[in-house]
Amino acid sequence: MRGLRLSVNNLACERGERRIFEGVSFTLLPGEALVITGRNGAGKSSLLDILAGRLPAAGGVILLDDAGERTLPECLHYVGHRDALKTALTAEENLQFARDFLGNPALKPREALDAVGLAHAARLPVAFLSAGQRRRVALARLLVAHRPLWLLDEPTSALDTASQETLRLILERHRESGGMIAASTHSPLFLKDAKEIRIERTLTPPPYAGEGASSSSVFPSPGPLGHPLPHRGEGTGGEG
């Protein structure tokens, strides 16, 4: 999977029949990172949701090369802005569940918790942990199963300075092993040679928008072409 290549061209997103953004284009190769920035509501999280298969695209191209028979969702980890943890389970139990469910195991739960500085909290129910500790448990899921592409939505949320540096080192090690990262953020991630796209709201509504509506454009917009995604209503999967 070291040769995996993700190409996105002219991607568009709609929510509730309202165009959120359009013209998103980028390419990710092994070892590369993409930082997605923009104002609240510009569509950063929606972009990650589309890549993760949680939201259908309104148009554009997503092409995955050299993945064999695996689909894009089968090649990625997704950590959203919500930690998605079972609070009644311990930190270790949450990670063991993720390891068993995802397959292709990597670090053991205790090892992953140690990597994020939480080995001492392995047997504590997640409900007893602070917001920053829960965030570190969620990020430790990245380490319990091998997935080449990591999609991260505000990964530094609730993390203190020391934990942010720990995360940065984990992300860089993933890249050094040939992994790829796409992260939306309001805070600097300080990833070496990371690409960046910024989603900005346009001042003039596109012709398909109603009066007073606005949409977002993305700069820059390089990227190769692939096979067009079906438009909404043409059998696209994913959650709304």
Brief account:
With 240 residues, the protein is of the alpha/beta class.
What topology, given as strand order, has the largest sheet?
Answer: 5-6-7-3-8-9
Low-confidence stretches: 206-217, 219-240
End-to-end CA span: 30 Å
Overall form: globular
**Second-tier CATH architecture of the domain at 5-85 and 147-219:** 3-Layer(aba) Sandwich
What's the total count of β strands?
9
SSE order, one letter for each helix or strand:
EEEHEEHHHEHEEE
CATH domain class name of the domain at 5-85 and 147-219: Alpha Beta
- Count of DSSP-assigned helices: 5
Helix content: 10-25%
The chain-level mean pLDDT equals 85
State the fourth-level CATH superfamily of the domain at 5-85 and 147-219: P-loop containing nucleotide triphosphate hydrolases
Overall radius of gyration: 18 Å
Indicate the proportion of strand residues.
25-35%
Main pleated-sheet profile = 6 strands, mixed
Structural class computed from helices and strand pairing:
alpha/beta
CATH level 3 topology of the domain at 5-85 and 147-219: Rossmann fold
